Amino acid sequence: MAELSGKSIIGFQQGGGEASIFGINPATGEKLQPGYAAASGAEMDRAVDLAAESAASFGKSTGADRAAFLRKIADNIEAIIDDLAALAPQETGLPEGRIRMETGRTCGQLRLFATVAEEGSWVDARIDHADPDRAPVPKPDTRSMERPLGPVAVFCASNFPIAFSVAGGDTAAALAAGCPVIVKAHHSHPGTAELVGQAVIAAVKDCGLPEGTFSLLYGPGREIGQALVQHPSIKAAGFTGSRAGGQALMKLAADRPEPIPFYAEMSSINPVFILPEALAKRGEALATGLHGSLTLGVGQFCTNPGLTIAANDASLEPFVSKLAELVGGSPGATMLNPGISDAYDSGANTLGGNNTVDIVAQGESGEGQCQARAALFRTTADAFLADESLGAELFGPSTLVVTHDGTDKMLALARSLEGQLTSTVHGTDADLEANRELLDVLETRAGRVLINGFPTGVEVCHSMVHGGPFPATSDGRSTSVGTNAIHRFTRAVCYQSFPDTLLPAELQEANPLGIRRMVDGVTS
Hints:
It contains 15 helices and 23 strands. With 524 residues, it is α/β, with parallel strands linked by helices. The strands form 5 sheets. Strands 2-1-9-8-7-10-11 form a 7-stranded mixed sheet, sandwiched between helices. Strands 15-17-18-13-12-19-20 form a 7-stranded mixed sheet, with helices on both faces.
């Protein structure tokens, strides 16, 4: 395994300081070595200053150069996959197979953004030619395109130590756009962060890019994280984490003298609606699929289905009985860290202690620390609508079944929901045709609406939307997965009456890059 320094990566230099942050094996409580030193205020300032100094040159680099850089990062990460597969499970409790899968996804995502940067049409080039003879006033020549914002702060997620962390989606999107990135490592997997950080900084050097293109900082979230978001040279930030943490940073970003865009993924219960005919025809299969979805990754995916809504008719009880059987037989499993484990236990106890909620089934207890028991709860539509606490996210392997007595009550449940990452509907063709209004409502509540599937897992592709109305994310117009994420870190600039030689290549008359553009209202 590559040697771990226990230090921040500040451009091409290591940080200093004494170890104060240690990864913890969540299954055993073992303190892992090495310990990591928190970046000082001066070191954070140095990282941001380097990023600001590099922003102009990196922002003007070609799409081909940025594509080569992203592909080099992917190559470097693949070269250490065995090291990651050995270390990350110790820090997170996740199995080796999951780490290998996540590493593959991350490298695929980096290469996907490389193709976007290289092809170049993402800049949305628009050209309107001058018309000096237009009356009553001449029309000027105007041309616009997306340009990078500048240095971006990225916060690593606890539940995806690779795919939503150092070289994850926000980092890939920002680098593809031409923005330097400063990553705040997550305390749960500091060694994994350093391994990936070493792979990224090696790619910076190999590709001859400016020193400030990338840095990785360690430190207490409230101190380093808040300071990063408030630093005047940071122009945007991406965050995946808790609702409380996300909202606190959102406020700091908005209250700056120069407010910046802050993209936070925070909270989602991902409701699953099961329509009557589907429940009658395939109830057992639905129970099996739902169980697999809610327990996948110990329920620590941001898209695990925490809410299941079905009509209280003759088909309901066999479905609930089968789901209870499966949940009851679920083995205990290790959660990511003590904080997440304690929050799950507390939330499950609170939900189970609500006098309108029944505990239908609980899984087996695991051995060791940070063990989660799968759980199945049940309540009624009237109780759910009367108590907003029942709609709170319970991050772990559980779901709350809410029963209703007809379409009107089902629609009331749908309309009562906060913003979600996903909403799912299971139905036959006849069910779906009869419930178009439900689909219309869910479109207003979620970033991704699924039919006859399960929400856990996110396809990394051009069309994916992994976002949603608040509080699923801070800005429902955005996505953290899919190539539209590049626009998180750009802004449009219009060039009026520029000589052709002074225009960016994307806007020059001859279209030297051969990209797709809109010219006088026609896209080709």
